[in-house]
Amino acid sequence: MLTRRSVLRAGTSAAALAAVPAGLVTGSRSGVARAAASPFTTPLTVPAPLRPWRLAGHDFYRLTTEEADVGLLPGTTTRIRSFNGRMSPVIRAERGRPVIIEQVNRLDVPFSMHLHGGHTPQTSDGHPMHQVEPGGSRLFRYPNEQRAATLWLHDHSHENHAENIYRGLAATYILTDDVEERLPLPKGRYDVPLQLRDAKFHDNGRLDWDLHGFDDRHTVLVNGRPRPYFEVAARKYRLRLVNTANERPFVLRLGDGEEFTHIGTDGGLLPEPVPTRVLQLWPGERQEIVVDFSRYGVGRRLVLDNTYLFDGETPGIMRFDVVREARDPSRVPDRLRPVPDLGTSAVEREFTMSFDPGTGRHLINGRPFDMHRVDIRPRLGVPETWKIVNGDGQYGIPHSMHPHLDAFKILDRNGKPPAAGEAGLKDTVTVPAGEYARIQVRFTEHTGLYMYHCHMLSHVQMGMMGQMEVSR
């Protein structure tokens, strides 16, 4: 159970950031200063995509969830929970070509694989009722009939998901389609996934796990590497940013406030590119940007900062080193991808997300998660408007909403239109304490039992999740 001290600590550490709607932060937390020295001594690892067996129009993978000893911090070995012994693996999939994954569980805890952002059948969505017990296995089928987007795989077991993800079980899943492939955006080696997470290490490299220790994880890992450097060419790069942390938000700034181009979010490309100098990335979210390193020339170094910090932290999380010239046929077009019209909402719902200090539970509409209770019953193809209310103004605790099965549009925040960077399809929206957001969602492809929940993972583990049964 959380103590009153824990709640106050959460409110104090989150208040400055939570007071600004996602996508609209324009400055750093007061009092944050760059350290005198910012060593970046470890090269970034850019994982090659896993290679599938290509069988009868499908891509087949076997992912074994298992413990592995890997080198994260220089000079030490860390025991992680992994897919196939790897940190931050990548799967690339094609629209219209289904992926089948056999998940084999060699952990000593259950695991239930969820494709975050995927439009998947109920039996492959990762519901806790389908969790794979130690020593077991299960097939997951992903139809890949949705539009291109950066998705990710993580655990959704009933009691272990937060720790499993914290200890390393997260894979990036990049879905492409013909529409996106025809655009002249950076491709191939210049299209780079970057998983961001935080961790707390002991001196011997061992990970320290505390469900409530979100403000004590001072090491940020990028693709599993602490404060790495990345050697780039003087040309444009597409960077796919994935926040796989339990609860840490990132407010990202490049160099001394250099401009870059925001092109996509959870549900894929934005309608049009958005020039920006600061970008928020909340737990579970994905943001895609294009950085043109030709503007700086060979020899320039630019640090990517997280400008919202807990006490004792320094802002630099990785460095880009421009080391060579390169031909660059890519460009960012003026128009990217229009957002589909979801129609007129026929149903309105309200969800109040709040913390109960008496029980230490996080609640939706006053109730904790119950696997044996259905909370709402949407109909397939019927548009709905959801009002997400953060009822924790007195504590300063941010919450988010992530419905499974389909993406949504943000209609407004506190009655005002969303920022340009939130104009595309989303699947996770964070709401600051005491505020609200309205979203529109339409479930279109599958029926059955699905979840919706906060993506602050300790909040989920303490009850902030509901169930919906989607029917025709």
TrEMBL record:
Superkingdom: Bacteria
Pfam family, one: Cu-oxidase_2
Organism: Streptomyces spirodelae
Family the entry assigns: Belongs to the multicopper oxidase family.
Record carries keyword Cytoplasm: no
Domain Plastocyanin-like intervals: 70-177, 357-471
Signal peptide: 1-18
Matches recorded under PANTHER family: BILIRUBIN OXIDASE, CUPREDOXIN SUPERFAMILY PROTEIN
Annotated EC: 1.16.3.4
Keywords in alphabetical order: Metal-binding, Oxidoreductase, Signal
Quaternary organization: Monomer.
Protein name per the record: Multicopper oxidase CueO
Keyword Metal-binding: yes
Reaction equations catalysed: 4 Cu(+) + O2 + 4 H(+) = 4 Cu(2+) + 2 H2O
